[in-house]
Dehydrogenase (Curtobacterium pusillum), 332 residues
Amino acid sequence: MTFSVTVVGTGAFAREHVLALRTLDGVRVARVAGTDLRQAAELAALVPGAVPTTDIASAVADPAIDGVDVCNATPGHAPWTIAAGRAGKHVHVEKPAALSIESFDQMVEAVHGADRTLMVGQTVRFQPAVAELHERLERGDAGVPRLLHITWYTGHVWPGGWRGWQLDPVASGGHPVHNGTHALDLAVWLMRSEPVEVFGRDFPTFAAEMPMPDSFHLLVRFANGALATIELCYALTQPGRFLRRVVLCGTNGTLLHDTDAEPGLSTPRHAEPPASLEGALARQLAHWVAAAQGREPLRVRPSESRAALAAAIAGQRSLRSGRPVRIGEEAR
């Protein structure tokens, strides 16, 4: 049975979603919806038969649509996810799913109330090296996880790499929310517990003139007593450069993932993605469809996405206050 999808969004990452969806057997991109008809038409042209539109409400509520892939700017995630849920659709929503826990809970209520699947696009879980790391943890190779250190550096074109809304903490949630949810979701997934306290520090590095500091460190304490240190920097001067190191210490041993050991990553402009990233978005969307059709258990549970979002919001508050922030009952 064909699974028909409306893609909400017409930006660069919406394009990546359209390209990934068109590779999946049994999936049809039926509508591409956004506020700019020209951009919607450009993306729709990538898939035979896809219809561009600026009538997002109709594209989301169309009875012929099975699922809605929400990948527009973050302020638009909650409204269109809720609309899709109320229309009885399965929903995939890009990270960060929302800008507040209240909004996220409304999204979950709308989609689950229609007995449909809601999945947040945590692409890192579907990267081969990270998936293998999790599998080894599940096999018991490290025992009970106690300490996690994530170092995550990437090259970005500063200061022209982000648009205005991404640099506005009110619209993007700030760096820990906009980008930090990748690492925080990974921490929640690996540590098997909810964060309870976050302490952060941010600073400008290569892009000192940017309104949003390009680097931050977070210290995250979990309910089970485990600890995670997250170091994230978007200021490498080479566009396309990517370095990540994950060290997970458990009661029986240590697991390590290090992209610096992968061939090709030291070249100035490697043409192919590193092995640890290859094909992750297509696998992520294929899994969403399979979960929506009841063929696979959902890998990214809303409760985990909620915990990561709460930690990201607390991290942004800590950056502004300079103090550790406990995640309150309203954020858990």
